[in-house]
Amino acid sequence: MRAPSGQWFKDIADTRDAPWDGLSGPKSPVMPWIHPVLHPEIKSLIERWGVERTLAPKDPVLGASERVDQLVMVKSGITARCVSSPFAQSRLSVAIGLPGRLACGNLNFFTGRPCVGRYFALVPSVVVSVPQELVMSLAKKNTEFLLLIAAQFELAALSDRLGFAAETLLDIDERVLAFFMSWASVYGKLTEIDGETWVDMPLILRGEALRYVVNCSSAALERSMTSLKKKGLVVSEADRFRVKLEILKPVHQWLRSAEETSALPRPEEISRLFTGS
Length: 277
Prior knowledge:
The structure is a single chain. By secondary structure, the protein is α+β, with helices and mostly antiparallel strands. The protein folds into 2 domains: about 5-170, Jelly Rolls (Sandwich); about 170-275, Winged helix-like DNA-binding domain superfamily/Winged helix DNA-binding domain (Arc Repressor Mutant, subunit A, Orthogonal Bundle), CATH 1.10.10. About 35% of the residues lie in helices and about 20% in strands. The chain has 8 helices and 11 strands. The strands form 3 sheets. The protein has a 4-stranded antiparallel β-sheet with strand order 1-7-2-5. The protein has a 4-stranded antiparallel β-sheet with strand order 8-9-11-10. α3 crosses α4. The longest helix is centred in the middle third of the chain and has 27 residues, at about 145-170. The protein starts with 5 loop residues before the first helix and ends in a 19-residue tail after the last helix. The model has no long low-confidence stretch (mean pLDDT about 90).
């Protein structure tokens, strides 16, 4: 992925995050590859007690140590989490951390067990780290905060599970569209152009970074993106990206049909993902 512009970094910092609704989490559905936003109390704790680090692309989130004993929040930029090393394999399967979301530290928070994971920056990023031990000591003194931590980490696990489901059950073209939808759920805005509805958003991840997320070869990703562009279904302009709403609907319906009945169903109309209604 080429070096992003300053405007792009400003755009991705401007996330559209639904407010939390008790322990159910944000009022928006869980999406593959992108964790729900941090609860304000957890975010405030990390900002107050955490230590900032600036990362270049591919820098490890945890520094020289690979021990996962910190709760890490992305302050700016984008980080990745995967089950292998970005320096040892050419083909990865990753999920991403956006501003205001976790980079790592949730998976083994209660047990301290190995995560079998690697965490690194996809673009120039700033992360804030706080010891898991400190967060745990505060949680032990406050049952409501402990439950909040548990809910946050459960939401992260559900997001990762959806990512694995998409990778396993969808073909490459569908996975690309699924990522567009997840990215748009955080940044997308509906716009009408010549009588057709589009979703406008900051430029998506591209090249190697996008290939990591959808877990495919460079050639396969190039074929998929070229086909979409030739058909006029997606448009890239400078730091912005547009996709026709219509082509996202099948993936949205797949997610609806894949989920069992619950008190928090995914909205029937995909447009609600981008309007907050």
